[in-house]
Design a protein that fits this description.
This protein is mainly alpha-helical and about 350 residues long. Helices cover about 50% and strands about 5% of the residues. It has two domains: about 15-130, DNA polymerase, domain 1, CATH 1.10.150; about 160-340, Intergrase catalytic core (hpI Integrase, Chain A).
Length: about 350
């Protein structure tokens, strides 16, 4: 017999949740009637946009909440008041059991990071509902993965690999642009959308600073940029950008070759992947890998974790601490490889 509150291996029906028949009946709209939850989700997304949340943030919130609504609809749950902590626990169990083909050669379960992101969106949405007295209590307040561990960054480039990557672009206009972008990503640890959003006036060459406007969470920050990256940007601005720009009024720092306007995130991904392949790096390299690499190399060099947190724009230092784990593992590997006593057999 299952303990009270235990997660079962099938979805909870409304009738099993201990709700009165009248409430259950009222929760099921007539055919064609708009779902109460659908309207709430749209209002929540409008609220997210009004707070200045990034388009990508609003988009994945829509996807995750849409998945929840589709699952609830199969249970005939269309009102927020009928979503309980037990129902959400069932939904989380459903997500853990799912497999996906997205960006995978073979179907596999959702990653811990994806599950954590979905749980975070659920907590945010139902907290918003509770604040507006749509529900009497927040059913997602205690929603946790339970077995969550912070995953280590998937890939960190070595300093030699970084040098090869930065040397890969050609000397033509696009090559100068690409070199400037790669240098900037590695020097500053910017997110890909943050790099694409840079305008000319965000760069202060005199003092070596970049202003990131409306980064993740809508937060602004100022990031130092190194001399090599600055030199690469100057070469691009002096030699390449005049050939790429369509209008003297174009504010974007980095421009696309075809549109002659602001570079897209998709194009940036392709640029990084292309030069990583040219450099002979036998791993999947993305702009985010350069962000991981920047943070890890800063910590290896003795940077304070709070300073790295400020550079990366993390709201919590706990997020930055995953890079300290990488650095410590590197140190342990070096010790095992280099210390004379580490190579001796233990009697």
């Amino acid at each position: 017999m299952k303990a009270e509150g235990a997660v079962t291996d099938r979805p909870v029906r409304l009738e099993e949740a201990g709700l009165g028949e009248a409430i259950v009946a009222s929760a099921r709209p007539a055919a064609g009637q708009a779902s109460d939850l659908v309207g709430l989700v749209e209002r929540y997304l409008d609220h997210s946009r009004a707070l200045g949340r990034a388009r990508g943030t609003v988009a994945y919130r829509r996807v995750y909440l849409g998945q929840l609504l589709a699952w609830l609809d199969e249970l005939s749950i269309t009102r927020a008041q009928l979503v309980t902590a037990r129902v959400l626990a069932e939904y989380l169990a459903h997500l853990k059991a799912r497999v996906t083909h997205y960006k995978r050669e073979e179907p596999s379960p959702l990653s811990v990071k994806t599950l954590a992101a979905e749980a975070s969106v659920l907590r945010s949405f139902f907290a918003w509902c509770a604040q507006r007295r749509v529900v009497l209590f927040d059913p997602a307040e205690s929603l946790r993965l339970g077995d969550r561990t912070q995953p280590l960054p998937k890939a960190v480039l070595s300093e030699a690999e970084v040098r090869s990557l930065l040397a890969a672009p050609a000397r033509d206009a696009l090559g100068l642009r690409d070199r400037a972008m790669l240098e900037t990503l590695y020097s500053t640890g910017l997110r890909r959308a943050e790099l694409c959003a840079l305008d000319l006036y965000d760069l202060d060459q005199a003092v070596g600073l970049l202003r990131v406007r409306r980064g993740k969470g809508g937060r602004d920050r100022v990031v130092p940029i190194g001399g090599c990256a600055l030199a690469a940007i100057r070469r691009y601005l002096d030699t390449a950008r005049p050939d790429l720009v369509a209008s003297p009024k174009e504010p974007a720092l980095f421009l696309a070759a075809i549109t002659h306007r602001r570079l897209s995130v998709k194009t940036l991904n392709l640029v990084v992947r292309k030069h990583a392949a040219s450099a002979g790096i036998g791993r999947h390299v993305t702009p985010h890998v350069l962000r991981h690499t920047c943070a890890t190399h800063l910590l290896r060099g003795g940077a304070d974790i709070r300073h790295v947190q400020a550079i990366l724009g993390h709201a919590s230092v706990a997020t930055t601490q995953i890079y300290t784990r990488v650095a410590v593992e590197d140190l342990a590997a070096v010790h095992r490889r280099c210390h004379p006593r580490s190579r001796l057999k233990v009697p």
